[in-house]
Design brief:
The chain has about 750 residues and is mainly β. It is built from five helices and 47 strands.
Length: about 750
Amino acid sequence: MAASRGSIASFATYRPPLQVDMFSVQVQPSLGKEQPLIDDGDHYNYNGRPIPAAALKAIVARRPELATAEDVDSGRATGLVFVSERDSGLETLHVALRLDGKVTVLSLADVYGAGVFGGVRMEDSGCFGGGFAPGADLSIVYVSTKKPVEKRRAPWTVVYRTSLLTGETEQLTPDGQYDLSPAVSPSGTRVAVANFRGNRWGGEIEHLHTDIVVMNVDRRAQGGRLDRRRLVRDGGWPSWGSDDVVFFHRGLEDIDPKGKVTTTWGVFRHDLRTGETVRVTPAEINAMTPAAIGENKVAVATIRLRTNQMSEQREEAEYRHIEIFDVADPGRPAVTRITQNVFAKADYYNPFVLDGGRSIGYHRTRREKVVLKNANGQSDVPRTFNMMQCPHEDVGQFRVSGVFPSFSTDGSKLAFVDNEFKAVWLADKQGLRVVWERRSPNSVFSTVWNQNAELDILYVCVGEPFSTTTVEIYAIFNVSGEDRQYRKLTAGNFNNAFPSSNPEGSKIVFRSTRDHATEDFKYKNLYVLEDAHAGELAGGVTRLTDGRWTDTHCQWSPRGDWIVFSSTRDKPASAPTLDNGIDLGYFAVFLLLVADPKVVVRVVTSAPPMPGPGGVAGHVNHPIFSPDCRSMVITSDLAAVSAEPISMPTFLHSVRPYGDIFSVDIDADDIRKNRDIQKFTRITHSRYEYSTPAWTKFSTDDPKAQWNMLVRSDKVTRSFRPACPYAHDDGGESWHLTGHMILPRKCC
């Protein structure tokens, strides 16, 4: 079915702007240079693990045209399982088969069918077990989010085992529990996972509260028992050094007198024979994502000097590197630095062991794809659209390389902000260009079009995003033309943000602190700017909501009768001021009847809804109506997290990951029938943070046919200069290449 209801677009934070691929370095007999690409270089590829020969023979037996068992036995054919984003933007497991130097990549659906490996989902951490007894099939063990979880603010991450011989699949994680990062023991009998403690996620951001739990790989072949038990409290990313030794990483929290939490990371070794757990990496460095080479040797990712400053050029020690720690002599562990010898000023992620430890693999950003000199003489990257698979057959979906994407009502124009929050970009059939640049970063956000497409007006917020400082709303008139005009619409030095016009384009709803400016905590309520063209001083402002809470992220419906917004108004009085030390928390989505603003209906909560305050512990934010007003999309932590955050670009400042994009169907005729809707649909399944969605009636399969993303060579665009380049003069990677938004602090 065609995308008859338009398309959803969103932005992914912490997704590097350049392609990620896997490489390796030879360690034995001596440290060598980085080897050529070990995948096929198509799309984003990461989190690799080698496929044992026996498992690879079972896979190629189902695709004999690609290789034979003899090819595997002779060493001509080798394999790698990894995550790739080539399948409609989904983050799913693939197999790279290398035969005589040529790489062929298959999805697991290509081998075992879409019945097992199909649908919108995320997969990760592929590893191999079984084969230890006549009745124990060789199998691939992995984590998947394919099974919906009705419980709110709960992970969807479940570990499965699929037989490589038959494709039969078994769920290993018990119902009601949630696992990450499976790793199978060398004998193929046991799998270790990072299990969410208490079978819940409490909103933690970097340091997940997980324990190392072990269980049988093949229940049927192992006496009918899962034999699941906790091995280590507080740990993640397990890796077996032998059937008796497990390495893992652990976050260690330090709380200062003001309550600020600082987390450092170390890699530990647990001996199942003695029950002893010891730290194997020095306390003065951060170490994570171990890959065991043996009982006493482990490859880890390290950050030797962690910083909270993102505006400065990093030193070598501030990058993430791969190192090997040999703890055969605990008193004097030997350290081998791997990637510092490749290129010191770059980030390398999640090591894996190749050739029995003779080589170490990892993934990194393809920094060589940086455009070293753009029209302005600076490093730059391509800006692209990525089509993605949507669970709704009548809705399209794609990812935009910009924050706060916004579409004109007729779908002909797309606006967004760069991830420095410094410039406003516009894409249409004329090309991509900068239509407004501020002098400094962190000073412009939230683009939105006037709903009257004939007016060609774009609204933007000028000021520091994610703060309570002064923010003003501006209008850019004739924005797609050459003779643009800029006008400030708000006054009074309040925090005014998230404007949205009525369908006629004559009024604007927005949020503001104006009636809470003198209070210790600057709460925010909704207001209407009565003249969307002349501004506040000419037309005045009407208050819509009134309360000591935060109302924000508002949008006027395309029909004009309702306003949707996010609010903390149902936060319990006993709840803490901050959620995990960051922001208010307790956001839910509400509908307001424009004709009678006292009619406010709570629509979606992040925790199980209950009457009155409560049941809204987390975040449901940035609600947007569908063009037909039959649905809305939100960004929320309804599905918690789907990967260990520390395995990704490090959260260097206070970060609120909203999570994924979800849709909710609503009754378009009776506002009261939308109270505390139970059913939602998960749109994105991702390790990244998806936020600030938009919904356009535009539904072509190729967005490039509608919006030309080739950069125009007009005066404003030519003069645009990012505050932080993508690559520094010495070739060192900047924070941009981690996918970070370049902000000193992010809070709501």
